[in-house]
Amino acid sequence: MMFLLSRFPRWGYYVQMFGKVSTNVLKILLTFAFLLIGFALSFMIQFHCQKPFESPWAALVKTIVMMTSEFDYGDLVEETDPKVFVKSLLVVRVIFLMFVIFTAIVLMNLMVGVAVNDLQNLEVVGNVRRLAKQVELIGILENLLNARRFDSILPYWLKNVLNRKKCRNEFVIRPNEPKSKNYKALPSHIREALFEKAQCRQKRMDDELGSQNYREKLDEIHKEMATVKTMIMQNKSQANKDCEALTCKILNIESSICLMNSSISELNKMLTRLTQDTADRRGRRWR
Q1: Which of 65, 158, 173, 268 falls 20 to 30 Å from 125 in CA-CA distance?
Q2: CA-CA-CA-CA torsion for 81, 86, 87, 92, nearest 10 degrees?
Q3: Residue 178, phi-psi category: left (phi > 0), alpha (psi -120 to 50), beta (remainder)
């Protein structure tokens, strides 16, 4: 039952504390068992195997009970037969005093101090251990339900009930609706952890979206620069073609001008010849 209670969020911490304190007490008792056995045998010898120290087991049990401050000093020492303890009464009182100092004071305070120290450490790691125990319990239950032997033992109606049970894949919690059923179903620390995780995820998505938009803008700018560059190259090639065509036209015009100049010079030569011929003919006539 305590094993099952340790899996619950509210009670698991106290069950963990109880188990840790019990383990520490058992360790200390086993470590100092020789001290308890020594005092138990001493009391049994000094009281001559009389009640409550009539046997080693009874003496050990009575010694452990006396550790809890239930000494019964008056019943053990003052009300005993003085004829039996005439010689050993002083020794009994010395042993009893040593038992009170070393066992009831030192050993008990040691156990309390170790328990308190471990409880402080347990408070730090208690939630982690509790969650680990819950996961372990869930794993054991799943293995038990999926086992063939256990499946064969279950009655038919219980199998149908288990098969109809469905796990909730979605659990919606709205921070602005604290009175909703799902909001109250979870503990406060789980809600805070879920809200914090949701905020971190939202921030991460915003950062990714911002970086994606930034990349898209950079791609658009790169595409525009590429289109402008291609247009410049096309305009440059077209301008080069126009310049080449204009140069060809100029060369053709220059060649035609040269031809015209040569033809004009030939005509001038022909005119000079004609003028000379006409002048020679006129001179011959006058003669």
Answers
A1: 173
A2: 60
A3: alpha
